[in-house]
Amino acid sequence: MAITEVELLGYRNIKQLIMQPDPGINLLYGANGQGKTNLLEAIWLFTGMPSFRDAKLKDCVGFGQEHAKLELTCVDAYLQKAKICLGSEKQVLFNGIRYPSLSKAAGYFRCVVFAPNHLYLFHDGPKARRDLLNQMISQLRQDYASYLNDYEKLIINRNALLRDYKNRADLPILLEPWDLQLSQIGTWLTVYRSEYVGYLSQYIGEIYHGLSGGTEKLTISFHSTVFENEQLDGYRRESAQVYFDKLQQTLQEDLAFGHTSIGAHRDDLEFFLDGLPLKTFGSQGQQRSAVIALKIAQSQLIDRLTGEKAVILLDDVMSELDVSRQNYILNQLDSNQVFITCCDPANTMRLKAGKIFHIHAGTLQEERRAGESCTCI
Question: Read out DSSP for 165-227?
Fold first, then answer.
């Protein structure tokens, strides 16, 4: 997949923009607050996922504008043309087909994004890492979000029973139908997450090896509160029974605390650098490199499982990285279409191939192709 044209109208601080990107690397530079991230966010919305800035869609409409229009043209077997209208004129069209919401169009446009706020993976709790896994998997399995939604409703109802009926002798009978459903859906979610992390681990080490110049080794692992790793070899009825039995074994603990203590809602993704926990022993640059490697690994996995190359969005990716890691990002990722934003125009001089754009006050200017001389910097 490659984007051939992006057109934005009334989107945040971008009054009007038309971009015809390179099929390889696209470097966008400019000062803070000029619209670099806005452009990447607009592209990301075509995935059908929420904004990576945790913004509401209504907040993406430019100040004083009634609506915003976004159009995307691609070279791809599944998506050729897409249009999104936000605000007073709400509309989602993919290949001429109207969808009731952006989320219903998920799966047509596959994209991977890195943003600075993704470093929360190492500072927040397991929920942040689960949310990331959920987002990644949802681009590959359209039914995943539905299963996840069902599971979350089941947990809410089970927790309510634990709190409201804790002194009733028949509570185990009341819980049984909820536990049976939790066991089935929770096993499915956990097994699929475990398989996905297993696939990712085949790529992430090699990518981080390239980023670090071969000096560091990054590994990832999946952690479940229900299963040992050897029990996660695909979905089986026996696995769901293990899940159900664990819920019965932890019932007294659950009653004491008023919530369900084990299950898919407690899954976690763990990072290790040279065998040590990255969140404890890694520097800011190493943590940033790990998330970048994870995102690139995700794009390679999408290629492997779908035969389709994902578009890669890297926002403010150069900060806290040494020159060798910056050069790797600029010049080793051109097998995919990549959009990179940065503030320092010096980065444009090290790009060997692709297009260079300057963004100022929401206006985009294509300056030159990489390697061509320019006097405007």
Answer: STT-TTHHHHHHHHHHHHHHHHHHHHHHHHHHHHHHHHHHHHHHHHHTTTS--EEEEEE-SS-
Rounded alpha-carbon distances, angstroms, from residue 277 to 64, 122, 139, 242, 271: 48, 10, 28, 29, 6
Query: Per-residue pLDDT tens for 119-136?
Result: 888 888 889 899 889 988
**To 10 degrees, the CA torsion angle through 134, 135, 140, 141?**
50
d(CA 1, CA 92): 20
Distance, CA of 247 to CA of 254 (rounded, Å): 9
DSSP state of 62: P
With DSSP H G I counted as helix, E B as strand and the rest as coil, what are the percentages for the chain, rounded to 5?
Answer: 45, 20, 35
- Token pair 């009007």 is at which residue? 16
Q: Which helix (H) or strand (E) holds 83?
A: strand 81-87
Q: How far apart are CA 123 and CA 220, in angstroms?
A: 16
Mind listing the pLDDT tens digit for each residue in 230-263? Answer: 567 777 888 999 999 999 999 999 999 999 999 9
Sign of CA pseudo-dihedral 366, 368, 369, 370: negative
Rg (CA), the chain: 23
**Half-sphere exposure in the Cβ direction for 148 (13 Å, CA):** 18
Three-state SS letters, 296-326: HHHHHHHHHHHCCCCEEEECCCCCCCCHHHH
Lowest-pLDDT range of 207-221, 284-298, 322-336: 322-336
